[in-house]
Amino acid sequence: MSTAAQRFLQDAAIKSADLLHREVIRRGMDSYDAAHLKGRARIKDWEAARQRCREIKREAINHLDRYLLQFEEKVIARGGHVFWAANSEEACTYVKNLATRLGVRTVVKSKSMVTEEIRLSPALEKAGIKVWETDLGEFIVQLRDEPPYHIVTPAMHLNRSQIAQLFREKLDPAIDSDDPVDLMAVARRKLREAFFAAEMGISGANFLVADAGVVAISTNEGNGRLCTSVPPIHVVVTGIEKVIPRLEDLAVLWPVLATSGTGQGITTYSTLIGGPRRAGETDGPEEFHVVLVDNGRSALLADAEQREVLHCIRCGACLNICPVFRHVGGHTYGTTYPGPIGSVLTPHLNGIKEFKHLSFASSLCGACSSVCPVKIDLHHHLLQNRRNATEAGATKSSERAMFRIWRAAMGSPSLYALGGWTVRKSLRLLYALGLAETFLDPMRVWNRYRSSMPLPSESFRAKWRKNRAASSS
Amino acid sequence: MLPQVGVDTVKVLRRLGYNLDYPEDQTCCGQPALNTGYWGEARPCAEHFVRVFKNADVVVCPSGSCVSVIRLLYPELLAHSPLREEALSLASRTFEFSEFLVKVEAITQVGASFPHTVTYHASCHGLRELGLREEPLKLLRQVDGLKLIEMVRSEECCGFGGTFAVKFADISGAMGNSKADSVAATSAEYVTAIDPSCLMHLDGILGKRQSPTRTIHLASILANEGPKNEGRQNDGPTQAKP
Amino acid sequence: MPQAQAEAQTKETPSENSSRDRILQQIRAGLRTVVPEPPALASDRVIFEPVANPLERFQQECVLNLMECALTADRAASARQLSQVLQSLPEGEIFVQDDPSLRQLIEVAAPGRPIRWSSQGAPAEASQATITLADALIAQTGSILVTAGCGGRGASVIAPCHIVYATVDQLVPDLTTALSRASRDGILDRNSFACVISGSSRTADIEKILVQGAHGPRRLVVILQRES
Predict the structure, then answer these.
(1) Chain A CB contacts of C7 below 8 Å
(2) C195-204 average pLDDT score
(3) Which of B67, B121, C5, C55 is found 20 to 30 A from B26 (Cα to Cα)?
(4) Same domain, yes or no, for A59 and A182?
(5) Across the interface, do A463 and B167 touch by the CB < 8 Å criterion?
């Protein structure tokens, strides 16, 4: 079986050459870019907003134990349940056993990347429980039996005609329109049945508010509202890093999340839920459970360089701006979290040996860090991951040997000059012998997409010497 | 590989009256090893750099990428080196070429003439690590006869990325071609930037597409003095053929 | 993990959740590493432009949020407005929060309409509209703040049209004010649910094209009365 790195290289080669894919993504990203810039302009001091969000998340992460306990206490006091899961298996087992015990046959889910991370839906389906993804994009990729392509817009790699075709195959052969309004209506009708049949709703959380003891869930479609209002059981599955200290913190986090995610001033439904239906309330679930997932997060706290990776609010801005994401697409990464944040985080969650290649698959252009609303220095963490992989001896021995030679050459000006001279002369000779593009040509990978590099006849150093000699004579 | 960039940088600075030295003991700032994760190999190289340049009042470099390494990464790379203090001091005296002219010396008019259409690619490290958004454009706007045409997504990476260009050649090539599409849409005669590495990569991409647009470093545009120097090859540094 | 143990945990108190202590221990161990933070920006920087005229701002934001806002003078005008909105909707049951002010309004505005009051339970799936009050209106974002007390959770999301009856004195300038007031008044201690709603339900999941009316209401109508 091929490794994750080999699969990445193969898929990247296919996707980056797929001009239709590039066009679909380009169009989606252009419309995001325009909305994002307009949204940012509505905030008087965007840099101050980023700084404030960073400080909020930093305070929360630096006192993670205290804020989680404060949150837990409030939820339990309202009659909710809080389960701490060390890993995916514990989280899935808890939800599955809960569903089995309460006789759940149908689950409606709103978008949650943590449930993707722990692979909750397959675990429930194995137990014979039907799971409906209810966010339109998630519903589409579920019908295609695919993981989400993007953490905010899961189906952005598909155009309307592909989606219409999918709906005809899976839902209703009579669908004769590919207008997004009509396609949404088809999904709405189908999912309405699910909302009212389901015994359990599962959601993620955008924030866990410690002082109020509530979960904050942002949703535009309203599917997250229905999942948490209609079924008799509501289960929240979320990462432990989502906690924030105070309810008032949302006054800046909500607008910044929406601006970075979609360019909106605030997400349409910014919901706060603190427990099951209270006595006297009209409706709402009778049971309320929060599953706090660690799954490698607490280990990141000890990493002084990269603790701030836990500040991430999953807005997707770094994916949107990333030129690598724009060319290879979300699925190529082969990870739950694609794009820059995924390349930084995945080695921590799933191992540096298997996923180090993602940190190298970047031009380190820094666009991600420049947009991150909580100011995570993403491209610097990619560089640190590269260093960590190299220091762990996880890189190729040929590469290690090459850099040892490089080190010797760079330490000595005469070797450096000789090296430059040798490269220029030997390439010239190679090409004169007609051996360009053969296996002997070290530039053949370079030349696959580029014309040959010009080989200057003399170095700057030589020119400088001549010039100095000329001016002194 | 691009000696003309150095030659033209010297030409512009001399014309403005600066006293220049090129310490011949210099090698590399260490970026290739540093960015590939070989910090142990990059460290002696960085230390060599610090020793070679420690007596300079100001170091000017026609590459935003190299300057960002010295300014932003040396403090971390050399955190436990005996040369740490020297490195920090050097970092505060090292400037990218356009940064030195515009930000430090407040010069935008260098008496250059370049009667051509030019589009500008904002090299990533100059733009985002050093914050040089307007400086190169201010210099270009003062060049006699030069018509600047803005390209779409001028701030998106060209796809070079050092060893990335070879390790992930397919992605780098695709990114380069997207950038070349943006360049082509301007129909400019030249595309310029403040980083030789971006230009070397783009030159190859444009060459493979047989694009009429040529690459030229900012310093090489500014080195052109206009009519009295007519006959000087206007070809960018990367146009020299083997 | 053995099935029996996991089942016991579904009825957990904190101490029965075996991973809880391990996770907390690991968190505390990790936090012993001190992480230096670069100097912060000046804390007096103003992030959002202060809202000078809340009513005007609210109306502007409603337009941006694709919601309808009708400003009325008094109760009689509000009843006329409500009647107009209801006449534009198909026949069928509407759901109304059981509150004296809404009972009075409905008597005038919707004689003969089948009504389901929130005291009778959640709105039916086929409701044509829901009518509720709000806890507050937020000018900065053109939002309405509803709680479980406003007819429940489904009252603002199940029907294709949600009508909110509010008065101008319920306007607060911004999110910070709304959230600090919610904190101070213990709104979330009295309600299991609250929601800041800023427009009708929508999606842009297909080609980033905005579609109004996803799973929730296609129309959000605010009848905003000057007289309290």
Answers:
(1) 97, 101
(2) 97
(3) B121
(4) yes
(5) no
Q: Do chains C and A touch (3 or more CB pairs under 8 A)?
A: yes
Question: ipTM more than 0.85?
Answer: yes
Shared domain check, A417 and A385 = no
State how far the Cα of A49 lies from the Cα of C175, in Å rounded to an integer.
14
- pLDDT attached to residue A379: 98
Spans of all domains in chain B: 3-103, 117-239
Mutation site, C5, C188, C189, C205, interface A, largest A CB count within 10 A: C205
Q: Which domain, by its residues, includes A438?
A: 413-472
Residue spans of the domains in chain C: they are: 54-225
Q: Indicate whether A141 and A254 sit together in one domain.
A: yes
Residue A404 within a domain: no
One-letter identity of residue C39: P
Topology classification of domain C54-225: Rossmann fold (3.40.50)
Q: How far is CA A130 from CA A106, A108, A116, A127, A195, in A?
A: 5, 9, 16, 9, 12
Mean pLDDT to the nearest integer, B121-141: 98
Same domain (yes/no): A71, A194? yes
Rounded to whole angstroms, the Cα distance separating C133 from C58 reads 17
Window 411-470 of A: residues touching B by CB (8 A cutoff) are 411-413, 416, 427-428, 431, 445-456, 458-461, 463-465
* 3-state class (DSSP) for residue A348: helix
Q: Which fold has domain B117-239?
A: Rossmann fold (3.40.50)
Q: Is position A76 within any domain?
A: yes
Q: Chain A window 350-389: which residues touch B at a Cβ cutoff of 8 Å? A: 360-367, 369-370, 383, 386-389
CB A298 within 8 A of CB C26: yes
Q: How confident is the model at residue C2 (pLDDT cuts 50, 70, 90)?
A: very low
A204 and A326 inside one domain: no
Report yes or no on A56 lying in a domain.
yes
Q: What is the pLDDT of residue A226?
A: 98
Say which residues have a Cβ less than 8 Å from residue A397's Cβ, sequence separation at least 6: none
- Domain membership flag for residue A400: no
Check: CB of residue A270 under 8 Å from CB of residue C196: yes
Q: With 60 as the cut, is the pLDDT of residue C4 above it?
A: no
Cβ contacts below 8 Å, chain A against chain C, sum to: 301
Residue-wise pLDDT tens digits, A269-315: 999 999 999 999 999 999 999 999 999 999 999 999 999 999 999 99
Q: Is A51 helix (H, G, I), strand (E, B) or coil?
A: helix
For C151-186, what is each residue's pLDDT tens digit? Answer: 999 999 999 999 999 999 999 999 999 999 999 999
